[in-house]
Design goal:
This protein is an alpha/beta fold. It has helices at 13-28, 41-47, 55-59, 77-91, 156-172, 189-202, 214-223, 235-248, 289-301, 305-321, 335-348; strands at 2-5, 34-37, 64-67, 96-102, 120-126, 136-139, 147-150, 176-181, 208-213, 230-233, 256-260, 268-272. It has a 10-stranded mixed sheet with strand order 2-1-3-12-11-4-5-10-8-9, sandwiched between helices. A two-stranded antiparallel sheet has the order 6-7. A hairpin with a 7-residue loop joins strand 6 (136-139) and strand 7 (147-150). Helix 1 (13-28) packs across helix 9 (289-301), helix 1 packs across helix 10 (305-321) and helix 10 packs across helix 11 (335-348). The longest helix is centred in the middle third of the chain and has 17 residues, at 156-172. The two termini are 27 Å apart. The model is unreliable at 5-9 (pLDDT under 50). Bound molecules: 3-isopropylmalic acid and manganese (II) ion. The site of manganese (II) ion has 2 residues, from helix 8.
Length: 350
């Protein structure tokens, strides 16, 4: 059972994600029971709420949530996001935001001389605490003395659980974990993060670890993207790195993400990294691959590993072939054309 959040991009990328997942289900012999929820900025315009007060209770029985993008210029960003996306991530303890970065054949990158296969890493972003905290406030509003304070919150439990996930993931991959820090400038929370990283590392002697301050790390993403296997970072650092990584490999429209509760106590949520792109919304030209690839991550999380691999293979093949491309990757095809091309391959691919 999948709770599909019927949000602002529902007319575009989400139906293509569903189409490809349905094709995978048919091929591998399982069925989806989709249930759309009409929550988002349009609902906000009518009701003043992004989701009903019991939204999380409504979603809880589902196996997973397949989410489009949230946000519209008519609603302040912090209102739309703190009214929907962030409460779901927190309420369901989706403390890992997993964001793979891969260079595909057929995608032009702003970098020179990199070949597919050479850039392939995962960002593990802490997704429940850190810099994204609602602890703080303002004083003396509207006067010259006005001030704003926002507290970063790092808990040992919160840091350790995301680090543990990252170490385990590195173990399944190339056994190399990089930590994003800034303990030279941020002198309380970041040294704490570093200490937790080192302590956790002692339990994983087989994993090669390194750490960089976030400033030089962004430079390394551009200059040496082949250095990375798994990169773990706090909520804000992971957010920044997960736009930079996809940009380096060619298109943010392709990047997927999985908001995971690894213990499966609550549903996990799968959404593209890109936002609601109001500049092209409604035109039918958005790249659906970020949504479709997020669907593949959902399949993997639900245990349908072969189906997940098939969907990812179909994405890679469609991109390599290069016949069907949306404008962001240099073509003139529509969202639907690209969804259809990938779905067809999923149905046929052996
Ligand atoms: C993301 C987005 C969100 C975030 C915004 C929309 C709040 O940028 O998922 O990366 O920062 O988490
Ligand atoms: Mn982001």
């Amino acid at each position: 059972m999948i709770g599909m959040k019927n949000l602002d991009s529902v007319k575009e990328v989400v139906p293509q994600g569903i189409r490809v997942l349905e094709a995978a289900g048919k091929r591998f012999g399982f069925q989806f029971n989709w249930r759309p929820f009409d929550w988002g900025c349009e609902t906000y315009a009518k009701t003043g709420k992004m989701m009903p007060a019991d939204g999380l209770e409504q979603l809880q029985p589902f196996d997973a949530i397949f989410l489009g993008a949230v946000g519209h210029p008519s609603v302040l960003d912090h209102v739309s996001l703190w009214g929907l996306l962030i409460p779901i991530r927190r309420g369901f303890r989706q403390y890992v935001n997993l964001r793979p970065v891969r260079l595909f054949e057929g995608i032009e990158t702003p970098l020179k001389n990199w070949k597919p296969g050479q850039i392939d890493f995962c960002i593990v972003r802490e997704n429940n605490e850190g810099e994204y905290s609602n602890i703080g406030g303002r004083l003396y509003e509207g006067t010259d003395d006005e001030m704003a304070v926002q507290q970063t919150v790092f808990t040992r439990r919160g840091v350790n659980r995301v680090l543990r996930f990252a170490f385990e993931l590195a173990r399944e991959r190339k056994k190399h974990l990089t930590s994003a820090t800034k303990s030279n400038g941020i002198i309380h929370t970041m040294p704490f993060w570093d200490e937790c990283f080192h302590q956790m590392g002692t339990a994983y002697p087989d994993i090669h670890t390194d750490q960089y301050h976030i400033d030089i790390l962004t430079a390394h993403f551009v200059r040496h993207p082949d250095w990375f296997d798994v990169v773990v970072g706090s909520n804000l650092f992971g957010d920044i790195l997960s736009d930079l990584g996809p940009a380096v490999v060619g298109s943010i429209g392709i990047a997927p993400s999985a908001n995971l509760n690894p213990e499966k106590e609550f549903p996990s949520m799968f959404e593209p990294v890109h936002g609601s792109a109001p500049d092209i919304a409604g035109k039918g030209i958005a790249n659906p691959i970020g949504q479709i690839w997020s669907g593949a991550m959902m399949l993997r999380h639900l245990g349908a590993v072969e189906a997940a691999n098939t969907v990812e293979g179909a994405i890679a093949e469609t991109l390599a072939e290069g016949k069907v491309r949306t404008p962001d990757i240099g073509g003139q095809s529509t969202t639907k054309d690209l969804g259809a091309a990938i779905a067809t391959l999923v149905s046929r691919k052996r």
